[in-house]
C-alpha cells in the first residue's frame, strides 16, 4: 500500500531549439512552466534582469531572491542564457557596442522590445501603448514619458535602440 509514485510530468519548457527556457528573454508565463517557479519567483527573475541586465551564466539565477542552490539544481537542465543568441553576442562583443542591429522602438513588436536590457513584458506593453496613443517617438529621450521608464533605464537601453532615422 504505497502511495502512487507517478513520475514527475514536468513539461519540457520550450522557448528555444534546445527546449530550454531562456532566463534572459522568457516571459512570466514561460518562466512559470519551470518546476519550483511560481508567479512571485518568475516576477523576481524578470525584475532582477531588468535591474541588472542579462544573466551571463545560468548560475547567476541564484542571485535572484528566493532561488537558492536546491532550486538551481532542479532548474539547471531546463534553463539557458541563450548561448549563441542575441544576448550572448552582445556580451561577447569585443567593444562596448552591441553586435546586433538596433531595435526600432517605433516599429518593434512586444517580444523584440523584451530583448532590450531593462525591458520586461509590462514595460514593453507600455512602450507600445504610448506609441499607439501619441504616435512614433521623435527622440529616445521621449521614452521618459512612458510609465516604468526613467533616465537610468533609457541609458541602459540606448546602445540597443533607435527611433529609425
Shape by Cα distribution: elongated
Largest sheet: 2 strands, parallel
Please compute the radius of gyration using only Cα atoms.
18 Å
Low confidence ranges:
2-14, 84-99
Q: Strand pairing plus helix content: what structural class?
A: mainly alpha
Q: Kindly estimate the percentage of residues that lie in beta strands according to DSSP.
A: under 5%
Number of E strands = 4
Number of helices: 7
Give the H and E element order.
EHHHEHEHHHE
Give the overall pLDDT as a whole number: 80
Our measurement of the CA-to-CA distance between the termini, rounded to an integer number of angstroms, reads 72 Å
**Spatial sequence of strands, sheet with the most strands:** 1-2
Helix content: 25-40%
Describe the structure.
This protein is mainly alpha-helical and 165 residues long. Helix content is 35%, strand content 5%. It has helices spanning 28-32, 39-52, 69-75, 86-92, 110-113, 121-134, 151-157; strands at residues 21-22, 79-80, 103-104, 161-162. Strands 1-2 form a two-stranded parallel ribbon. The chain starts with 20 loop residues before the first strand and ends with a strand. The relative contact order is 0.13. Residues 2-14 and 84-99 have low confidence and may be disordered.
Annotation keywords:
two-stranded parallel sheet; two-stranded parallel ribbon; mainly alpha; disordered N terminus
